[in-house]
Each structure stands twice: as C-alpha cells, then as structure tokens.
Design a protein that fits this description.
Largest sheet: 5 strands, antiparallel
Protein name: Protein kinase domain-containing protein
Shape: globular
Distance between the termini: 41 Å
Number of helices: 5
InterPro entries: Kinase-like_dom_sf, Prot_kinase_dom, Protein_kinase_ATP_BS, Ser/Thr_kinase_AS
CATH class of the largest domain: Mainly Alpha
Pfam families: Pkinase
GO cellular component, one term: cytoplasm
GO molecular function: ATP binding; protein serine/threonine kinase activity
C-alpha cells in the first residue's frame, strides 16, 4: 500500500478559494507557507467502506497518485505532495491558473488554423509522452485541458485530472465503462478491451471542435 503524509495539510499550506469541484473532489488554491509558492490542493473524499458508493476507493486514489508521481512533462500537470487524514486524501498539484482551453476559445470566438495547430500539437505532445509510459488518460475532454497562463502570446497547454488514468499492461485485458459520453471511444461504450488508442478517439473529437 502506498503511504501518504499522515499530517495536517493546514500546517504546511494556507488553503484559499475554491477553483473547481467534481463528484467526490474539491480543488482549492493554496500557498506553501515555507516558500510562498502557490499550488492547487485537490481534496478527494475517501470511500468509507468497500460497499459504499460515496467517495473514491483507496485503490483508485493510489493509482492516480502513482501515475502522477511517474510523469514530468511541460504539457502535463505536476504533483508536488500528498497528505491524508481519516476522511480524505489531499493532492498538492501545480497551479494551472489560465482556465480551460475552451473558455479561452469562447472569448476568442474563432482561432486561425495556425493557432489551432499550436494548441493541438501541445495536446498531442502530452498524450504522446503519457503513451510512451503506457499510461492511458481515458478522460481527455475540454474541461481537462487547461492553460497555464492565458495572458501570454502563446499559452501553454496542461493536461489535468488523472482520476481515470490507467497503466496499460499488454498482457492483461482491461475493460471498463467510464469517461464522458461525447468524448469516449466506441470500445469504451461497447465494453471491449481498452488500450492507448482510446485516447486518440477523444483527441479526434477535440480536434473537430477546435
């Protein structure tokens, strides 16, 4: 079992405003007390028992953390630290403050082909890196593609949210039904064996929207 720091996150970080939330997680801005550096704190509610449907299982949290610990790429979010208490696990992540790519697109109304290509290349660079480590994201969608800083001339893309990501073991068949319906590959819907290629279907849908 992976061990996390059994300490109070408040001792090391000042917790600030909410940045977003999901079914069993809330993300808040935080500041490291020792350095003043800003991060994002993802508070994941733990499942209290195996039979419960509320919260995230320890196994799933460990899988997400282990994948995040393995990755280091300019177009993928970075994990800084992990804390745990009785009710939740707290991931301290790189602060990606530029908002969602598609909010940025809505403000621009339209992109030139050159701009769209620039964004798509960054998305593909991130996906290629993950796939080189046999990691499938399985939840590539507009909400999980963020800008590090939207005020610069050429914003950097960051892929976020590895809650559904899996290491693909080519010796073991893996099936699951998850993800966002508009973006998942047919093999997910059909409950067929899944691999890295499932991400490429999602990238295709994103490309069409761009």
């Amino acid at each position: 079992m992976t061990t996390f720091k059994q300490e109070n996150v408040d001792e090391y970080y000042d917790i600030g405003e909410e940045l977003g939330s999901g079914h069993f997680a809330v993300v808040r801005k935080c500041r490291e007390k020792s350095t003043g550096t800003e991060f994002a704190a993802k508070f994941i509610k733990k499942r209290r028992s195996k039979s419960s449907k509320r919260g995230v299982s320890r196994e799933d949290i460990e899988r997400e953390v282990n994948i995040l610990k393995e990755i280091q790429h300019p177009n993928v979010i970075t994990l800084h630290d992990v804390f745990e208490n009785k009710a939740e696990v707290v991931l301290i992540l790189e602060l990606v403050a530029g908002g969602e790519l598609f909010d940025f697109l809505a403000e621009k109304e339209s992109l030139t082909e050159e701009q769209a290509t620039m964004f798509l290349k960054q998305i593909l660079d991130g996906v290629l890196y993950l796939h080189s480590k046999q990691i499938a994201h399985f939840d590539l969608k507009p909400e999980n593609i963020m800008l590090l800083n939207r005020t610069v001339p050429h914003p950097r893309i960051k892929l976020i949210d590895f809650g559904l990501a899996h290491k693909i073991d080519f010796g073991n068949e893996f099936k699951n039904i998850f993800g966002t319906p508009e973006f998942v590959a047919p093999e997910v819907v059909n409950y067929e064996p899944l691999g890295l290629a499932a991400d490429m279907w999602s990238v295709g849908v994103i490309t069409y929207i761009l």
